[in-house]
Amino acid sequence: MVIAIIGVLIALLLPAVQAAREAARRMTCSNNLKQIGIGLHNYHDTHNAFPALSASEPTRVEGIFGSNDWYTAEKAILPFVEQASMFDAMQTILAKGTQFYVRPPWGDISGYENPPVLWKLLDNQFVGYYLCPSDGQGGKTFLANVSETNTANQVRLYKVNYLPFTNAGNEVHMYWELVESFVGRPFEGELTGPFSVRKWRLMANFTDGLSNTLLYSEFLTGQNEERAYGKPWSLRAGQEMIFAANTPNSKNPDLQPPYAGYCGPDDNLPELNLPCQQVGDDGWTPNASARSRHPAGVQALKGDGSVFFISNTIDATTYGRTVMICDGQTGL
After folding, report:
1. CA 186 – CA 2 distance, rounded (Å)
2. What is the pLDDT of residues 77-115, one digit of tens each?
3. For the segment 310-322, what is each residue's pLDDT rounded down to a tens digit?
4. What is the Cα–Cα distance from 236 to 70, expressed in whole angstroms?
5. 309-332 b/e with 16+ CB inside 10 Å = b?
6. CA angle 32-94-225, nearest 5°?
7. Strands 254-256 and 214-218
8. Alpha-helical regions (H) of the chain
């Protein structure tokens, strides 16, 4: 009888304990996003603009950083989230580049000064603020140069659980805006989101209001360390940015390019909130939705630095408006 009573009590207490643990993880996650918000605002105070999604040519604010699609917003704010040493290591790597360019450790290294050795400066480092404790399935780092057989030259780079919004469409909309290559100039109100390639947004560009615009939200790092998701080192959906084409934790698959490592045969896992589908790269239609392990939604960072929980059931049109900075409509 006593054993039965104890069993019942445990059964009653276990959900409460699990809920309390998730509440603590969610609070940590919220604080991480707030730190990213502080980093973005301090960056703006220093450079008079928010960082670009990717600086694919010499920039107006960093100077040395150039044609590197792996050099993204979350790297630009490293000095402002207590990661100055990691930022300095990246400066060292970039300074060794040729004509403002440094190949990532997995790229074609012909003509460059042994990139794997340079990238060892970042080996096995990660940023605690960039990881949500409710996920963790994909690990903190991944092996970047998988074809490297010399273990001394193997490099593990960090993963992230937080990615910037680009727009409410897909990659093609991002590249359309790139045609209008003018710093800080929006392309079209219905397409313009907070971050894009070679676009250093000014606060003045957010005519819908910073408190009405989402900058960042959550993403998942995959079911194992080597999944492409959450690897902010290549300018692709789900690696360096997310979109608001679908509502949070959507059952619609994240559309991925037809390359190795992007939604392989074993990667479409809707039961783990990781639905994906490869699409042809000719149309540049890949996208990725905000995703988390929190029950019923995701957390997101607003332009004013506050953090907002978004339900999975939010109206799709309303949600899309939340990431537009100047369309004259607000979703929040």
Report:
1. 69
2. 999 988 888 888 887 777 665 433 455 555 544 444 555
3. 999 999 989 988 9
4. 10
5. ebebebeeeebbbbbbbbbeeebb
6. 45
7. unpaired
8. 2-47, 73-76, 84-95, 115-119, 171-179, 316-321
